[in-house]
Amino acid sequence: MNQNFEEVSCNYCKSKSYRIKYIVDGFNYVQCNECGFVYVNPRLSDDAIKKLYNEDYFGGKGFDKSVEYKKEFEQQSNTIDLNDWDILAIKGFLPKQNTELKLLDVGCGMGLFAYKAKQKGFIAEALELSEFASQFAASNGIKVLRASIESAELKSNCYSVISMKEVIEHLPNPTQSLGKIYDSLQNDGILFLTTGNYNCPERRIKGNKWFYFMPQGHLQVFSHKTIRRFLVKAGFRKIIVTRQGDLLMNFLLKTGVIDINYYKPKSFLKRILFECVRFVNHFISSGMRIYAIK
Ligand SMILES: [Zn+2]
Fold it and tell me: What global pTM score does this model have?
């Protein structure tokens, strides 16, 4: 096999038994025969993966052309967006306390989420592997350590919140990373994740043309069932998996249904609309928002 590729086993159960589900750009998305987890195999080597996250990637010219992260930071850092609502939702899960809230954003990219958390009163730190992105985040006042979650040395029992938005699917070893995150959270601390949802209608309809299949970087594809299993294995005591991706949540925000001062709208009519949209989204969303409490 070419040295740029490596054969891997299932990251959840270590089984090497799998069946090929989809072939995308010459890569196999396979499903574990033991536990049903979906992952890329063989995949790019760790060294080849690290080289993907350069300036082109963050400008929307890499393997994922759907987001221009630099433009997103410039447009959204000082306007209200879904990140603000996510931070509000996270605060709602935290126990009431007087001490300062400490947040670590893992794979912060250009630092937008950490920047917004800081604006909302968190002591915000971030991890970012990319030299380009970590320098950009640091230039906006984020305390950012240039490291991957695999290599970073994290203090035990340190953070009230650890966030990973659209990151876990990129990690070579989510079992190890979630274990580290669990250890680094305070008791009652929360891990907030967003990621794609394998069990969505769009994947069933579009097959290997599903937009989320980007096998160079999206190494793992979770479903609501498999992400829960990983979080249970890491030790989390309470896990809330919502099948709420960004698309309809952004619709709620733009139409004013989500009130950014409240996790759920106060007005009765908006509350009903909010719950209706979320009910529909549960069945059609390609993404998930997940809250796991230590
Ligand atoms: Zn497995």
Answer: 0.93
